[in-house]
Amino acid sequence: MPAYAVVGATSWGVTLAALLERAGNDVILLVRSELEAHAVRAAGGLERLGTGPVLGPRVHIHPMPLTANHAAGLSGALVAVPSHAFRAAVQAAGLPRSLPVVSAAKGLDLETSSRMTEVLHALGYDPDRTGALSGPNLAHEIIRGLPAAAVIATPDLELGRAWQTALSAGAFRVYASTDVLGVELAGALKNVIAIAAGAAWGLGFGANAVAAIMTRGLAEMTRLGLALGAEVATFNGLAGVGDLAATCFSPLSRNRRFGELLAAGRTPADAVDEIGETVEGAHTAPVSLRLAAAAGVELPITAEVAAVIGGERTVPEAMLRLLGRPLAREELPRR
């Protein structure tokens, strides 16, 4: 039977391991230490997922690095750790450079502004055998077997189809794409917009305001994506508007919750501590602005989110600045 590795016992990493197993694969879940391995084995997953044991006998939990014996039988690996820990996790995992590797992270490298597949390439992994998984994928819903869909982007469509088969299980459907750049950018940029949406929820602005932020946020996400070479269709699909909708409207979204807490007066550090997990949008906002400046693209919502996180403005001040922008014609990016 096929075998796959998952790097990272995050909520999403454990969920992906469970999906791979449900689809009939053997799985090696690589974790940071033997202590963490013991905890995940004992719980049959993660207690914070709130579902009880979810990992069956075909999921084998081991501390990094991957042994040569285990590596020999692998068909591929998924890396499901936050973007700020991605490079170190891949290096620690010891995955063979010839192995197909997919990023399940939704962020950008804070120091280099790189996408996660670009980090993989810099570490020596074959650009033709790397990819990205994204979409409206709230782990707490998927682990319970609720219907969901994702998109896997690889340079080679046949490789993407192999990943489709490996991951599609029960009510979880995976679509294939070759727009790796667009899928990664959409997955990262939507987190920033979700922080703005959460701030609007926190201020009591209501669904109309959140829908407006989401729509104008999608426009600026798409503008930057097109400027960097992505396909407009990707931003209108699962990785773009699909993921954006889930992240802006679901109370399960960490980025939305972060925005709500900022609106309630918490500092960014206190908000992250209260959430207890990584808030990717907080790291992505300043990186997005660097990419936009280099491409000559304006990102008004992202700029205000970055200003609030950086302590330059309060949430109400940022919202007033957005509402006070010059009136303009609605033009949506297209190519």
Provide the CATH topology of the largest domain: Rossmann fold
- In spatial order, strands of the major sheet run 3-2-1-4-5-6-7-8
Give the topology string: H per helix, E per strand. Answer: EHEHEHEHEHEHEHEHHHHHHHHH
Percent helix range: 40-55%
Query: Got a strand count?
Result: 8
CATH architecture of the largest domain: 3-Layer(aba) Sandwich
Mean pLDDT: 96
Number of helices: 16
**SS content category:** alpha/beta
CATH superfamily of the largest domain: NAD(P)-binding Rossmann-like Domain
Radius of gyration: 19 Å
Integer count of domains:
2
Provide the CATH top-level class of the largest domain: Alpha Beta
Cα-to-Cα separation, first versus last residue: 43 Å
Q: Give the DSSP E fraction (strand runs of 2 or more residues).
A: 5-15%
Low-confidence segments, ≥5 residues, pLDDT <50?
none
Binding site for sn-glycerol 3-phosphate: 106, 135, 190, 243, 253-255
Keywords: Cytoplasm, Lipid biosynthesis, Lipid metabolism, NAD, NADP, Nucleotide-binding, Oxidoreductase, Phospholipid biosynthesis, Phospholipid metabolism
Enzyme class: oxidoreductase
GO cellular component, one term: cytosol
